[in-house]
Amino acid sequence: MAPLSPLYTSRVRTTLSAVIVALFLAAPGHAQKAVSFPTSDGGVVSADSYGTGDRGAVLAHGGRFNKGSWEKQAQALAAAGFRVLAIDFRGYGQSRGPGDSDVMSAPLHLDVLAAVRYLRKTGAKTVAVVGASMGGGAAGDASILSGRGTIDRLVFLGASPNGPAAKLKAPSLFIVARDDANADGLRLPGIRAQYERAPQPKELIILNGSAHAQFLFQTEQGERVMHEILRFLSTK
């Protein structure tokens, strides 16, 4: 088969980008449903469910956010054909479980895995996880500590796994702002180091600015971030 011409490829990318931006901005009215399900250590996860279909996506929030913070992104994913679960980690909202009094040291990966199991038990053939900041660490650890094929794709927003990235079992997309920093300094060097250790296939996207994780959606970079997430999750 002859290779696609650069002009054709550019047009396809432009069309896809326009569609994704339209989905992101239109806020389509996919019904939101409250659900809950158990964790393997006796906890309960509360979540908002959006959309239908056999492609699942779990949205795992950062420390300053909760399940409701994902509504716009969840609606865009649902419009693109995903069945989405935006979860509250234990210690947030109605979610609870061992360690929920100190969530930063709690086994949050078990909440992610509970959401993955729920989606698969209710018909999802594939499940991706998008994790922001704290949720990204939990998503990565869920992949590391589960069997191959449990999680099909991973997106890290301003984050990387807490455990060794070399043990990730899914294609991974890392998105981080160049000047994103905390009290310990820039996050990019640590995220880049974990990215380098992660197995292929993988991608690293470095954006201008300093917005951290879900705060990226509140900047002029928000449309691009959503475009990259949808592109990566839709790649076969």
Would you mind describing this structure in some detail?
The protein has 236 residues and is α/β, with parallel strands linked by helices. It is globular and about 40 Å long. The protein has an eight-stranded mixed sheet with strand order 1-2-4-3-5-6-7-10, with helices on both faces. The chain has helices at residues 6-26, 71-79, 109-121, 134-144, 188-197, 222-234, and strands spanning 32-38, 44-50, 55-60, 82-87, 126-132, 153-157, 172-177, 181-182, 185-186, 202-207. The model is unreliable at 1-16 and 18-27 (pLDDT under 50). It is built from six helices and ten strands, in the order H-E-E-E-H-E-H-E-H-E-E-E-E-H-E-H. Strand 8 (181-182) and strand 9 form a beta hairpin.
